Amino acid sequence: MVLLNSTSIKTNSDGVWQRENPLNYAFPLLMIQATLVLFTSRFLTIVLKPLRQPKVVAEIVGGILLGPSVLGRNKEFMHLIFPSWSTPILESAASIGLLFFLFLVGLELDLSSIRQSGKKAFTIAIAGMSLPFVFGALLSLLLRKVINGEDKVGFGQYIMFLGVSLSITAFPVLARILAELKLLTTQVGQTAMAAAAFNDLAAWILLALAVALAGNGGAHKSPLISVWVLLSGIVFVAFMLIFVRPMMDWVARQCSPEHNFVIDEAYICLTLSGVMLSGFMTDLIGIHSIFGAFIFGLTIPKGEFAGRLIKRIEDFVSGLLLPLYFASSGLKTDVTKINGVEAWGLLVLVISTACAGKILGTFVAAMFCMVPARESLALGLLMNTKGLVELIVLNIGREKKVLNDEMFAILVLMALSTTFMTTPAVMAIYKPFRRNITSQTQRRLERPTPDDELRILACIYGPANVPSLINLIESIRTTKKSQLKLYVMHLVELTDRSSSIVMVQQARKNGFPFVNRFCGGKYSDDQIAATFEAYGQLGRICIRHLTAISTLETMHEDICHVAEERRVAMIILPFHKQKRGVGQEAAMENFGYGWRGVNQRVLRNAPCSVAVLVDRGYGRVSEQVAESATVLRKRVGVLFIGGPDDREALELGGLMVEHQSVHVTLLRFLQNDGNQPEKELDEFAVADFLRRWEGSIKYEEKAVSNFAEAALAIGQSREYELLIIGKGQLPSLSSESADNYMEHTELGHIGDVLASDREMLPSTLVIQQKSAVDAEDVSVSNI
After folding, report:
1. Domain spans of the chain?
2. Pfam families under this entry (predicted)?
């Protein structure tokens, strides 16, 4: 073993050919440590995903596994990968990540929304913090006596750290759990998020107070020092809010779209320097540096400038540097220090006290606010979630020598246990969302009478989907008395990015999905809402706004659940590719293959018909879509081969015929073979369609040998702005051979051809009828 003097550590090695071990040098070793930490945390995230645990659980467990509790018991491993001389370097990198992460937390925390959360959330938050704090204070009386060395710590300091550690709720972790459980837009979820926001703000105030009181953990520190630290902290906060905040308002205005000013490196450097300078000032005062970064984040106005800052730094901070902090905490956590039956009994006592205080306090306050008992208990369990803030408190307590190694390990395991049990406990007692959608009825576009209400659920990813969607709905809307009710659902992907928490914070159950003030581009979400509202008034359509904030893997559950609950006849999904640009620069831009998976799962599980819109700018000639949609005359072609999907497409074409500004052409491809019962239904559907719309449509029959080539030729003719087709397989091809030729199986064979990247193709709407899905499921089950 090579012993190194920490004062002689060099940054880089000269390489193995110079007979030097890179692991004896600071930077190569840091790269290996970071790689190992990222691999371990990511692997554990995948392993714990079936248990529906938040990412923070995997990161804490990963840190403990790398530390002296498991792998660190091998002394050779520790000396090779985590030698003692590398600890300051690793902790410095982790501290930089923590500093900027807390800046992001302050940047995203909207104080105005906290003030508007209401008395109920405030009452629940106060009770949910006060009772566990009192329980923690009482528990500290016992722990100071039974844990060796804790009686040497100042009584007030010990009470503060233990009380704060038991009373904290992790706002970002709670948001992730609520999203996973589909509770974000429920009353329980909204109340829990509002209360957690109160709790988060109070936790930082208490943490600053605890650090001011702690000093170096000595029991004989002069109280006057704590007073000076507190007064200096108050002066710092006042200075930031009175002087720095107007300065940052000015910077944000200079970077606003109204001034046509593109943010440059000068303002980024100014802001990043401000983060580090603020951290230095609070560290100089005697409060932890992260407090300064958090306050500086609060001074920046929420808007375009804040959004660009988040996009610039969040991936590097959250993806690379922050996991190093969890690893650093794990290296300090030695579970073997919890030795003996008495020590493990203390761990159970601490966990029980933390759970009892948090759950009981929240439950009683919620019942006092007239929340039902089951929802009150669910709130208590949700507010018992711990996370990064908990680890920050514990690490600072250890640095200040308020917590020794045994107490630190006990409290880390307490935070891990309470967070781990939250998801299964809430699932056991509160299940408002039915994950398996089973519909007893087959809802289609066909209505018993023409005057019956037609309900459609239209999904959008963002502003780019709005113009074509409004034009499509306008084409379906009739001028008669029949009612069209449109549900617009904004699909918001919940990722591990910190800005996802902004979306969660702004979500509302009955309003438009959220007002994302960090949205860039030409339209922001409030403008999208205004566009739909204006169109609803002009088009005399009843429009309801919904949201789905979820991971892509479970997004289809939200869509299918709303379709079943609102009893819609058809779901309209945007294709995962959309045309961007004009002329030779035009290309199909991919939103991401994850969205393709969402469409595929909706097609398999939907309780009604589903239409996928391949958008190439349908009817889009003006930004004022709502006004232009009633003037332009659109040419729509309905391709009919046969089968339930094509009959549903024919039904949708019939709705468009009723609109005066839409000209519909029925193009029927004749076939010689086919299922006899289906052929009879096809003949009846076409005959009935021609009888109802005689004189209002154009009808053509084409005898073709290759349906796909014929459809492609029609698309390239540029006669139509929109082609409507059924998804069903071609009768001349087996399912296996068709799949071999298809790039996008969710569109069927002809839909796949028309969705290709060829030029001069129109927008395409591919329809799948509910009964067709049932038939496929039955055929598969019989094989």
Report:
1. 16-215+322-429, 452-509+524-581+588-615, 630-729+742-773
2. CHX17_2nd, CHX17_C, Na_H_Exchanger
Which amino acid, 141? L
The second-level CATH assignment, the architecture, of 630-729+742-773 is: 3-Layer(aba) Sandwich (3.40)
Nearest to 200 by CA among 98, 129, 131, 135: 129
Q: Which two tokens stand for residue 712?
A: 């492609």
Containing 367, the helix (H) or strand (E) segment is: helix 341-368
Number of C-beta neighbours around residue 737 at 10 A: 13
Closest by Cα among 230, 252, 290 to 106: 290
pLDDT digits 0-9 by tens, 692-702: 888 888 999 98
Q: Which two tokens stand for residue 177?
A: 């759990």
Q: How far apart are CA 102 and CA 315, in angstroms?
A: 14
Q: Which tokens sit at 143?
A: 């722990």
Architecture of domain 452-509+524-581+588-615: 3-Layer(aba) Sandwich (3.40)
How many degrees, rounded to 5, is the angle at CA 525 between CA 520 and CA 527? 100
In the CATH scheme, what is the code of domain 16-215+322-429? Answer: 1.20.1530.20
Confirm if 758 and 738 have CB atoms less than 8 A apart.
Answer: no
Q: Rounded to an integer, what distance in angstroms lies between the CA atom of residue 151 and that of residue 149?
A: 6
Give the helix ranges, DSSP H, for 430-521: 466-476, 499-506
Phi then psi for 300, rounded to 5 degrees? -85, 125
φ/ψ bin of 441: left (φ > 0), alpha (ψ from -120 to 50), beta (otherwise):
beta
Q: What is the tens place of the pLDDT at every residue in 401-413?
A: 889 999 999 999 9
Query: Which residues lie closer than 8 Å to 371 by C-beta, 6 or more apart?
Result: 120, 191, 379
Please name the residues in contact with 716: beta carbons below 8 A apart, sequence gap of 6 or more.
Answer: 758, 760, 761
Between 199 and 116, where is the model more confident?
A: 199
Give the global pTM. Answer: 0.77
Q: b/e per residue, 15-49, with b = 16+ CB within 10 A?
A: eeeeeeeebbbbebbbebbbebbbebbeebbeebe
DSSP string, 461-478: SSGGGHHHHHHHHHHH--
Nearest to 640 by CA among 697, 723, 715, 722: 723
- Tell me the C-alpha distance between 42 and 63, whole Å: 12
CA distance 666 to 639: 6
